[in-house]
Amino acid sequence: MTSNESVQPPAIPVLLGVFALLSLLFTGAIFGFFYAWICSTMWGLDAADPKVAIAAMQAMNASVRNAVFAPAFFGTPVVLFATAIFAWVATYRRAALLFILAGLVYFFGGIVLTFNVNVPMNEALALIEIPPSPAEAQQIWQDYSAPWQVWNITRTIASGLALLLTGSAILTLRK
Predict the structure, then answer these.
(1) I want to staple 156 with a disulfide (CB 3.0 to 4.6 A). Which of 16, 34, 108, 170 is the partner?
(2) Are 46 and 80 contacting, i.e. CB atoms less than 8 angstroms apart?
(3) Is the dihedral of CA 45, 50, 51, 57 positive or negative?
(4) Per residue of the chain (175 residues), what is the pLDDT tens digit?
(5) Does residue 5 fall inside a structural domain?
(6) What is the DSSP letter of 174?
């Protein structure tokens, strides 16, 4: 080898590269979704008339179960785990472990948390008939909004951590 030649790292297999980018896209999408609820949606609803907030949240919860949302919500851990497999096979062990960790963090902090906490809260709110009394509506909204937001912040932190782990995994692919 001459001084002009350098040792090049092995090329990242095409599937690994595609799935690494999909992992970044999916984790970014779900983090952005949860984050938007923190800094705009819930603050806006908290500032609105409680009767309007309850009706709006009921409508949003009913509409979120759709074909546009489902891939990011359910597909994120699938894509992360698939990327981990491709990375492992291509002998990028550190990246594989980071992709697995990202998938586990999101799976438990996003999906499991959502189904065990936020969905039951949403289903309970869906059954509520908006009361005519402003004071009753205010109490219902306060009882729902404050704990729902705590758990949404938890989901946001988990999905943000998954996004950071995904980015870290991608960076290790260059080494």
Answers:
(1) 34
(2) no
(3) positive
(4) 454 545 545 557 889 999 999 999 999 999 999 999 999 999 999 999 999 999 999 999 999 989 999 999 999 999 999 999 999 999 999 999 999 999 999 999 999 999 999 999 999 999 999 999 999 999 999 999 999 999 999 999 999 999 999 999 999 998 6
(5) no
(6) T
**Would 86 be classed as within a structural domain?**
yes
Surface-to-core class of residue 8, CB atoms within 10 Å of its CB (0-12 exposed, 13-18 middle, 19+ buried): exposed
70: which 2 tokens? 């489902």
26/28 Cα distance (integer angstroms): 5
What does 25-89 look like in DSSP terms, one character per residue? Answer: HHHHHHHHHHHHIIIIIHHHHHHS-HHHHHHHHHHHHHHSSSTTHHHHHHHHHHHHHHHHHHHHH
- The total domain count for the chain is 1
Q: Is the pTM of this model over 0.85?
A: yes
Residue 4 lies in a domain: no
DSSP code of 110?
Answer: I
Structure-block tokens of residue 23 = 């992992």
